[in-house]
Inverse folding.
């Protein structure tokens, strides 16, 4: 193995630039003649636009132009789309209302864009935006997803009566009802999964550049998937055909899902660049980020879990209402369906599962995937129910889980998924040992003497990564394929460029992908460059989300490396006058096994390009590409254990220990994996303890700044104990599963189970703020 | 932020004169609230008159038990003053827990009490310490100074130049921070004077800003002990209720923070 190869704790190559302020983000881009955009946004959650008067604004200093939705429509720019078709159980397609990039008749949430102002400076654009006179006639508002389905509520889109987008189901309802009727015990719960704001450190931004000379557009944007952005903007929004549109996602400062989607702003900036004849740059301020970045979660569910007399789960019945906000964002429909209900079997052998999901329009920001996307919702529901059931059945929580673990693989669940590999008991054992579970009673007694309520809780999660194979997701309604691409380009002196369709916005691809190459060819990782994020440089790819870059993106790289390796061996065999089957790659050289014959890697590369002495008929060059379409999802899993102390006088919860024992399959770089887990845990703990989006009844966002939206900080978090017990994934060449979302998926129920254990009251919703915990603790006595 | 004119005054007279000439001026003494408000375009003063560099408003003087803190003293200067720590460590600790290091090096005691944010820490200290707010025109007792949410007895153009108080026998401040902003969701400053008199001032909880709690004061005057708080009734009627804390929860926090402050004093 190379010192930089698979399994090595290599320091991140990209960190030099990030830590020294040399990153290049969209807002850092500057081009000649560039002007600045500010969007005029609705202050109302629901209103009719009677008129937009920009005459005064257009005469203000520095203003280039003010453009609105009527002009946008006149130029043929299309509506935003949702890229995953879901059918209701009655067979009807989902009821999608129009989402215009600039609202022209109706605004449906606070922050809905109605016009763009382009000016010489941001300040001048802001001044002019304030002078755009929009005459609104306010309409009634609904923000609560359960209320939105009721009688007499405001109708948000005429296409969706009673605001119901679809009423979908998965599983065998009759079998589930029979099992519940025959059960020895049924645990019932109402579960609310709180709405979250993604809060990427870098706010969204877009720079649209129209080149009239070539009739060509360039878009710099904060995207997790620039090729998808180009595809969607070309095929659906009529911005420009793909060959006339280059999308570049340079350094991107965090996404967490919120930068998967194509938002109105990048479309409008491109269009405005052509209309005004100048490059147009827009960067969101933090308030705009709170108002308009797609939010996450926001489910209200009821659950029934049935057990037989041996404490085995016989059925699970789930009814969920999911708030999708004012418009259907790009993948909003698949999050509460195929990324959620399909994971409801968790780590358990459950014979019958039925899930019913209703998705609802409300006068709130659009809701879409956020770190974990559906899987945290499933895990939270399932693991809180398991913990509650264990208490009701009088069993230790680990014991009830053990009784119900899936132990043989592959395992077909009743909700589509076919788990390929795993060892759930190994994770549980590792976590319980690391957490010193058996010592908890003594720790609790010691805390009691200090007047503190100590609690412990666990969560055994499973997730599905990779989001594939393409044919399977296509059959479920996906509008795109979910493969990945790679091109490996060996230069004439032996250095290597890898073009990947994945995108790195914090994940560390520039290091881990290079480690793959270093492992294969024995070259130092400094001689390998990972190129991503530019549709002109990189072949079509699908980007980064759903913890897919390792399992799918790296697998594509591995396939391309196979081809390069095969050709390099042919060239080397020819140079050494040996049989290619005897050629091995060791220590940066190609050798004939069992002899002292050897040619350095660089010489093989050079020979490939000089082409003076290649095997007969071989094309010159050393460059190969591959597309990898996985055969299945991957199934990372693990066990998280959280221990808390609650101050009963104030309700303050302090996490005194957090253990994560995960199964991520093979690991390329343990340090980066630990970093991903730490970040995921911070976000999951944020959801459970601190974060929550709140609208008031008029649809105003109450949590529109960090004064009211509580993000986790270093002193909210313990020093995590992170360990892995890995089973290689049989489904891909590297045996990797994915680790980006696990922390955010597994941690919330572990934490809440610990809090409810501490206070002796199960009635608590996330975030478990001091106020709520205090009130719940009071109610428990 | 809208355009504004920045002035750095070097004397109180100069500051007053600039303010008198300004169309809609605002004094700036750290700007930890004002500048973010301006950035959000929620405030648009024509002129900012910076008071932080006026020499006669700087410095912390301790003479026996008499304390004088110049209004332009930063939180960091208050937090790290050895002379102050020797007679009234409670106010040093309060200052050390305002905001973050950036805020503590910019924000000033004069700026904080002039702004009178209902969740700010200093107003509780001033009220409990029975401090005197010294301005360029007069002296105002803390009890008369804080008049409501973001409201004070200051007249147009009046400048706080210093605060004065007598260091008490015992004092302590305990705050329960808002999980998001980390401002005081409830903060209680308790003071016990040599003569046994007790003052309890509460910030972050009152719907009309900082206030004293007579019931807690009476109970603690009778029995200076954390246990004395237990049977005191804290009425939630006039307390703030918001996303983060109901009035009932704040009423509980008033008692708990008082108890802990007494224990720490």
């Amino acid at each position: 193995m190379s010192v930089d190869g698979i399994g090595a704790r290599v320091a991140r190559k990209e960190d030099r630039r990030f830590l020294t302020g040399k990153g290049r983000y969209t807002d850092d881009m500057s081009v000649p003649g560039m002007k600045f955009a500010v969007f005029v946004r609705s202050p109302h959650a629901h209103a009719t636009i009677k008129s937009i008067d920009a005459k005064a604004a257009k005469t203000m200093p520095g203003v280039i132009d003010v453009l609105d939705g009527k002009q946008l429509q006149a130029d043929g720019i299309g509506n935003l789309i949702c890229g995953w078709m879901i059918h209701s159980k009655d067979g009807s397609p989902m009821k999608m209302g129009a989402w215009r990039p600039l609202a022209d008749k109706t605004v449906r949430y606070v922050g809905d864009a109605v016009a763009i102002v382009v000016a010489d400076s941001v300040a001048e654009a802001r001044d002019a935006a304030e002078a755009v006179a929009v005459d609104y006639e306010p309409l009634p508002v609904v923000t609560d997803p359960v209320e939105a389905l009721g009688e007499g509520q405001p109708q948000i889109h005429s296409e969706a009566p009673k605001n119901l987008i679809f009423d979908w189901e998965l599983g065998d309802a009759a079998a589930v009802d029979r099992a519940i009727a025959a059960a020895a015990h049924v645990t019932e719960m109402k579960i609310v999964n709180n709405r979250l704001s993604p809060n990427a450190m870098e706010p969204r931004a877009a720079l649209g550049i129209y080149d009239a000379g070539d009739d060509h557009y360039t878009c710099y944007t904060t995207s997790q998937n620039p090729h998808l952005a180009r595809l969607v903007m070309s095929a659906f929004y009529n911005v420009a055909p793909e060959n006339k549109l280059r999308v570049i996602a340079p350094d991107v400062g965090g996404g967490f899902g919120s930068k998967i989607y194509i938002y109105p702003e990048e479309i409008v900036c491109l269009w405005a660049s052509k209309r005004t004849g100048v490059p147009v740059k827009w960067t969101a301020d933090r308030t705009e980020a709170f108002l308009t970045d797609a939010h996450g979660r926001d489910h209200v569910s009821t659950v029934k879990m049935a057990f037989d007399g041996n404490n085995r789960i016989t059925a699970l019945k789930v009814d969920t209402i999911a708030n999708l906000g004012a418009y259907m964002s790009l993948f909003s429909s698949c999050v509460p369906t195929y990324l959620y209900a399909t994971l409801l079997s968790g780590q358990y052998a459950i014979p019958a599962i039925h899930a019913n999901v209703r998705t609802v329009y409300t006068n709130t920001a659009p809701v879409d995937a956020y770190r974990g996307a559906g899987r945290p919702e499933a895990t939270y529901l399932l693991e809180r129910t398991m913990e509650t059931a264990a208490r009701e059945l009088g069993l230790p929580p680990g014991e009830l889980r053990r009784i119900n673990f899936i132990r043989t693989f592959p395992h077909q669940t009743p909700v589509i998924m076919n788990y390929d590999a795993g060892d759930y008991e190994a994770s549980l054992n590792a976590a319980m040992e690391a957490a010193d579970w058996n010592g908890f009673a003594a720790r609790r007694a010691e805390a009691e003497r200090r007047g503190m309520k100590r609690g412990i809780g666990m969560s055994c999660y499973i997730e599905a990564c990779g989001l594939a194979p393409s044919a399977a997701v296509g059959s479920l309604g996906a509008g795109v394929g979910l493969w990945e691409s790679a091109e490996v380009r060996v230069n004439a002196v032996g250095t290597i460029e890898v073009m990947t369709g994945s995108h790195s916005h914090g994940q560390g691809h520039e290091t881990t992908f290079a480690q793959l190459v270093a492992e294969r060819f024995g070259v130092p990782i400094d001689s390998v460059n990972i190129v991503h994020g530019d549709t002109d440089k990189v072949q079509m790819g699908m980007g980064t989300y759903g913890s897919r870059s390792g399992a799918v993106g790296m697998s594509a790289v591995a396939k391309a490396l196979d081809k390069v390796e095969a050709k390099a061996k042919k060239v080397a065999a020819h140079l050494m006058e040996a049989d290619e089957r005897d050629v091995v790659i060791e220590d940066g050289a190609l050798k004939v096994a069992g002899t002292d014959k050897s040619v350095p890697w660089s010489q093989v590369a050079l020979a490939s390009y000089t082409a003076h002495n290649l095997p007969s008929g071989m094309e010159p060059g050393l460059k190969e590409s591959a597309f990898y379409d996985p055969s299945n999802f991957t199934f990372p899993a693990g066990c998280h254990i959280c221990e808390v102390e609650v101050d009963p006088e104030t309700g303050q919860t302090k996490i005194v220990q957090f253990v994560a024992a995960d199964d991520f399959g093979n690991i390329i770089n343990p340090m980066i994996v630990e970093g991903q887990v730490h970040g995921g845990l911070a976000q999951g703990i944020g959801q459970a303890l601190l974060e929550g989006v709140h609208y008031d009844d008029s649809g105003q966002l109450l949590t529109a700044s960090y004064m009211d939206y509580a993000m986790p900080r270093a002193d909210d978090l313990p020093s995590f104990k992170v360990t892995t017990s890995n089973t290689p994934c049989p489904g891909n060449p590297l045996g990797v599963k994915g680790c980006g979302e696990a922390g955010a998926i597994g941690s919330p129920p572990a934490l809440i189970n610990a809090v409810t254990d501490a206070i002796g009251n199960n009635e608590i919703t996330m975030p478990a703020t001091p106020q709520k915990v205090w009130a719940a603790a009071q109610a428990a006595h | 932020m809208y355009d504004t004119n920045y002035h750095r005054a070097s004397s109180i007279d100069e500051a007053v004169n600039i303010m008198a000439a300004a169309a809609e001026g605002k004094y700036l003494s750290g700007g930890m609230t004002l500048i973010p408000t301006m950035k959000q375009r929620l405030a648009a003063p024509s002129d900012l008159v910076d008071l932080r560099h006026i020499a006669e408003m700087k410095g912390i003087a301790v003479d026996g038990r008499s304390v004088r803190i110049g209004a332009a003293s930063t939180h960091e200067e208050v937090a790290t003053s050895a002379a102050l720590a020797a007679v009234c460590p409670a106010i040093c600790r309060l200052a050390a827990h305002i905001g973050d290091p950036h805020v503590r090096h910019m924000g000033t005691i004069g700026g904080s009490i002039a702004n009178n944010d209902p969740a700010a820490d200093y107003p509780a200290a001033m009220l409990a310490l029975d401090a005197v707010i010294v301005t360029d025109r007069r002296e105002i007792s803390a009890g008369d100074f804080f008049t409501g949410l973001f409201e004070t007895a200051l007249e147009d153009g009046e400048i706080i130049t210093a605060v004065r108080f007598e260091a008490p026998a015992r004092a302590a401040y305990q705050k329960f921070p808002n999980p998001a902003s980390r401002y005081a969701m409830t903060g209680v400053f308790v003071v016990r004077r040599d003569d046994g008199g007790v003052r309890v001032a509460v910030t972050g909880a009152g719907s009309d800003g900082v206030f004293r709690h007579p019931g807690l004061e009476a109970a603690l005057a009778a029995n200076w002990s954390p246990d004395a708080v237990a049977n005191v009734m804290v009425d939630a009627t006039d307390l703030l209720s918001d996303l983060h804390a109901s009035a009932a929860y704040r009423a509980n926090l008033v008692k708990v923070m008082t108890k802990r402050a007494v224990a720490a004093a």
